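Forwarding these from the shared drive since the link keeps breaking.
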Amino acid sequence: MAICDLVVIGERINPGFKSSKALFDDSDLRGIQALAIKQRAAGASYLNINIGSRALDDPGFMRDVIVAIQEVVDIPLSFDFPGFEVQKVCLDIYDESKAGGNKPIINSIAEPRWEMAEALSIKPSRIVVMASERMENGEGAANKEPQQVLQVAKRMSRRLIEEYGLTLDDIILDVSITTLATDRAGLIKMALDAIKLVGQDPELQGIHMMGGISNIGMMLPPLATDGKPLKTRIERAFMTLARPYGFDTVLATPWHSYEALPDDDFVLNIFKEIIELQGMDAIRQLRKLYL
């Protein structure tokens, strides 16, 4: 569901969804086209493309998928693969003229995997920067503090601007939204605090922030204790807290609602309590949502 100034990158062309995996297994290009059309009609601004391991084993099918999608929708694509060779296949076949002249998105690079930035030399692109990792003493390390995310955002954006001529508008910082049901270390609260820091930093004004919003409600039952939907309201609870600080992009299912929840919403208020806790305290508070 489209919201003013919210960019939705449609997530459904991905083998993580059983129905989508079946389309890939059957080489069903018409079915993939129909899924692209459905996401576009629901308000997607981009389509994320991930056909799983088949992208490595069958680059011809990867090309066929991109061509087929660009035959039926006029929005840009986001190529979701960690390997340079697959990104090259995608970027070589991508046709800007069929996407309103818009650049594709490379999804993604991280500070410990900086070599992926070389994909920017293939074709002018926007790029997703992972905020979950940093380089420390020559090795990759997980970010667990908001300040670490901020410093990664600054270092990587500077390099992308200086070495590849990007602007902040070309850079999308992925704050890595984890699953509420398994978050015992306060990583959701950390992500929200990092969004605030990035959104308020003068050096980063104009950078975009995103996350895979569907992750947050995984492993939870469909309904809350008040009898209303739970998973989609958890997504909206995160959005309610993140949007005011510049979180403007989601990797998401376009036909879900991402409108802010009212202040008195049951799920929103329990969500606020949960993210302030860790360990068993967080588990006990989480159960109030569905028991």
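-- next protein --
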Amino acid sequence: MRMWARDRAALFWTFFLPLVIMVIFGLLNFGELGKVDLGIVDLAQNEASARFIAEAQQVEALRVVIGGEAEERAALVDGQRDLVVILPQNFGPTVTSQGADWEPATIQALYHAGRQAESQVGLGILRSGVDEMNFALSGVDRVVTLESEAVAARNLGYIDFLMPGIIGMAIMQLGLFSVSFSFVTMKREGVLRRLLATPLSPVTLLGSQVITRLLVVMVQTLILTGVAVFLFGAEFAGNFFAVLLAAALGGAVFLALGFAVSGWARTEQQAAPLANIVSLPMMFLSGVFFSRDVLPGFLQVVTDYLPLTFLVEAIRGMTVQGDSVAAQWTNFLGMAVWFVIAFVIANRTFRWE
């Protein structure tokens, strides 16, 4: 612990930089600049409803998700939707012996009571679309009507999304950079070789390094969570000890990757680009600053299996949705698999000199 605390650069990168990023993004509140999250429940399942959905998907201000009624209502209450539209079964023309004719149909729109700006934008777009539809159908009579209803829901903000991402990023940076740089330096300066000449066993040396950094991970997670909750009003719906468990497992994964980098690199100049090659793609593709939903489909599939994605999604599920460890077992399993992979690589590449 004293060795680590004497390194002022390590202290800076471990605590100050993640805090600065948290404060900057929290103050700018980039999440308010996004689209309106619209969920559509298609009970009609016909050509008219398909056309309605296709036209909604073409509106740039809307982010459209198709789902079942129970699923979308729950998403609205949890704060994952700004607006939910339910297309009734009689939405669309009825075919009779005299031809196709529209019966009066009522579209139900449920909107987030705590997000007036997003809800009103979405409702305005819907009303405009319904008016155009009525004009095209009859010109006078209102065949399709829109009924809106406010729903009390969790008012999740961008900081609620950002907090797990920053925690995961900080854990990744600590595991990769602090281990790779410090051990490369100690190898280059012959410190490790001299330590091995003492009664200190290699297991004790490595164990102390790992335990020290895992303790720092806990403190780091506590500080970042406290800043997000008490300074920016982020919600914390889950169990904090479960979050610490995810942080510890994620820390173990990236510590093992850090040992692998330090084993391969001979100098700090070699360690820096290699650590950046590992960390930078995950920082921007694993859902740290923005949702992975905006990524192309093939890229989403790739990022599903990144270690930082498993860590961030596990913490986000527990802090935002209040999930238990059991509910996030797939993400914990993913981190465990990555730990085994990273441990094998580190075991094969790590050298004392």
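The chain is about 65% helix and 10% strand. Residues 158-188 form the longest helix (31 residues).

- D.
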